[in-house]
Model the fold of this input.
Amino acid sequence: MSENSDKNIPVAAEAKPVKRTVLDAEDVIELVPKLKGHEKLVNRVLHWLDVDKVNDVHSRGFDHPSLPFQTIPSARSTAYRSSIW
Done:
């Protein structure tokens, strides 16, 4: 991370584009360079660990972001309880 000279705000040095997969063979090979040339093996291990199912779920929901967190008041909040009782 580098610092912005105007406001001293940390800025990401290199922004990577958002991927449709959580983890794929390219990511694993980037982390473990000795696996270069063994993409078929990496893909089999990812399949064995069911990472392909995780990637499928992630890619199906990729274009449809969810609602903001905690949009429904919880039963423990005092404002919610006071409006009921």
Summary: The mean pLDDT is 77. The first strand starts at residue 2 and ends at 3. Residues 51-61 form the longest helix (11 residues).
